Predict the structure.
Amino acid sequence: MARGAERAFVTDAGLQRLRSAFKAVWWTTTGVAARGVADPERSRAFQFETPPPPRGAQRHGWMEAFRKDIEDVGAGLYPASEPLFADPVEALRAVSDFLRDAREVEARRRRNGGVEARAEEGADVYPAYYRQNFHYQSGGWFTRDSARRYEPQVEALFSGTAGAMRRRALSLLARAWRSRDQRGLKVVDLACGSGAFLRDLKGAFPRATVMGLDLSPAYTLEAKAMAEAPVIQANIERLPFADASLDGATCVYLFHELPPRLRPEIAAEIARVLKPGGVLALADSVQPADQPDLARLLEAFPAFFHEPYYESWCREDVPGLFGLAGLELVETDVAFLTKAWLFRKREVKRSGAS
């Protein structure tokens, strides 16, 4: 590696370290403020079945997410992440809106309003499992306000590590494609949400054809604006791509929000559109076996957030699920509360001449 490139990577790693430190302080403070504003009474009444994390375990996992992200930037796998907001005034407005909405989210939690999104205009044309207020989110997946708040909400929830945890999938993909010419590669971020990971994906592979796909019109618009990339509105159950047409796909935090009956169908649909040798970089919640010391946090998640399919996800055989679809597990990575898997579609074996 040239010395200039080495210096650039060191600079990027230093920049990422500074941004990570700022995010840790900013979003931890925001999360504490939101809990203070909401005053979640249910948190004091819930009876846990799992023991509390050992002393320091939660902090260790939290810091490890930042450390892995900084190291990957330093290794040149992907550039330093972009700030979520363009200026301090925009950031303060977003946090103020997030804190105001925290009261509504808490009120919805107390009244168990997990399906109020079904009353949103136009929601009736979407699958029943989709028409819910996951995380007790105001507007479900159907409003632009919801799309704008999503990233602040997840960063506050995970004390600034959401981006770093998601990029475990980007790390696996970047390592798999490190020696490949990006030109001609075609990759789609499935269920791209508000576009934060799609923006990271585009930054890592600037010469590839990078696009997003999401079912929500509101989130599709937000993702286009955030990532400055094309985003298709479509249902992942019926992907609008030809057989064997994609070199890669990514999918972040989707499968734990899918009914168990749909997971095999969607895994098969992803496999269908990948070329032989194509890869899927998946990131989702860890399961208790991945982080036994943090099992209480996993138990708390569906208790405090509307996540009707999360418990089944914690028991899901992920390699088996995708293996049945023809995708072989290549590598995994874990950081704090997120696990990433890299799968490769099996090559078609040609019989040799007799």
Residues 1-354 form a domain with the Rossmann fold fold (CATH 3.40.50.150).
